[in-house]
Amino acid sequence: MLDISEKLRIFLARRADDMNDGVIPGDEVIRAIGEEGWFRLGVPSHLGGSGGSLTDAIEAIAEVSEFCVTSGFLFWCHRMVIEYLVHSDNVWLQGHLLSRLLSGDLHGATGLSNAVKHLAGIEPLRLQAERQAGAVTLQGALAWVSNLSSDGFVVAVAASTGGNSWSILAVPSSADGVEAGKELSLLGLGSSLTAPIRFDRVSLPAEWVIHEQGDVFLRRVRSRFILLQVGMSLGLARRALKEAGSAGLTLTRGLAIRVGEAVARLRDLETTVHEYGFAESVDPDHVPHLFELRIALADVALQAVWLELQAKGGRAYLKSCGTGRRLREAAFLPVVSPTCVQLERELELHRVSARA
To answer: Do 9 and 38 form a contact (C-beta atoms < 8 A)?
Structure first.
């Protein structure tokens, strides 16, 4: 685990309820995490990062999520755009964007959930890109993308380029034809800057293409997409189990045993996350195991918050207690894209294929 500064801890804790309720703007979170230097974790030093492994970045997202999953989710969105650029061969784009993303001066929005589901055969690509000499024109819309700050952002998207080919692009909010819609009213995570976004004949120089072969690139980064995502579940599960364990005399023997079992299960899953996070790369054959890992961690987080509710009893209904917020945060974990149901579907297909 990382040491979180008192400044960031207080910042996150004081804003967590309002962030979940959507009554304050979420724009300040990225700058606060950037000041902590946590966007640089797991990023090679020659690209402006502080080095280390992906485990460092996962733990940073987990640490933030212990206090506020909305902030942890924004962290994940932003950090994924950094990850795409780290794994791109586009030196110009790295030089143009990475320093501002690493400092938190520019917001990064990942619009690749559609592409992840497309790779799994779940849905078609929603965007089309027309290539010309030295340029690309983008058309289409995405139903929702998060971290779309009014202060400016860059969004990573996938677009069909004809036939079965598709590319990954970075699109700045300042480009003509980029239009973010009204923020969506959500059950929780209300300040996650989530809205539909439309691209109306957006013309960009070819330098904004992250990778020409979207399927190749996404297979390269998909394991990291999932591993960084589980940081939210880790953080929430840790916090809820701490809260449940601190209930003291109100715990029955049976409830204490269930809390202990959940703690043990979480530790086992943490070990697996760290093993994958320290690895330079994940064997494609292991990707199904990562799907199972994400499903299992979402399940542990849901169980942990439910145990917290039982341990605290009526106190959990006090808004100041934080349990109600964590219940809504936990409800998000199985449905963050790709959802646990979609991952289960892909696992079923994988098992059928393995038996054939």
So the answer is: no
**142 and 96 assigned to the same domain:** no
**pTM for this model (two decimals):** 0.96
Residue 1 located in a structural domain: no
Angle between helices 69-86 and 323-332 (to 10 degrees): 30
User: pLDDT of 132-180, one tens digit each?
Assistant: 889 999 999 999 999 999 999 999 999 999 888 999 999 999 999 999 9
> Residue 250: its pLDDT value, please?
65
220, 192: one domain:
no
Same domain, 293 and 344: yes
Cα–Cα distances in Å, from 161 out to 112, 136, 158, 173?
A: 16, 10, 10, 21
Contacts of 101 (CB under 8 A, 6+ apart): 39, 78, 81, 82, 85, 108, 154
Domain presence at residue 51: yes
- Alpha-carbon distance of 90 to 77, in angstroms, equals 20
Q: Are residues 237 and 260 in the same domain?
A: yes
Q: How confident is the model at residue 235 (pLDDT cuts 50, 70, 90)?
A: very high
CA distances from 29 to 22, 32, 64, 114 (A): 13, 5, 10, 25
* Cβ neighbours around 281 below 10 Å, total: 10
Structure-block tokens of residue 157? 């998207």
Q: Is 37 helix (H, G, I), strand (E, B) or coil?
A: coil
How many CA atoms are closer than 13 Å to the CA of 204, on its beta-carbon side? Answer: 23
Range of the domain at 10: 6-108
The CA radius of gyration of the chain, in Å to the nearest whole number, is 20
114-128, 243-257, 328-342, range with greatest mean pLDDT: 328-342
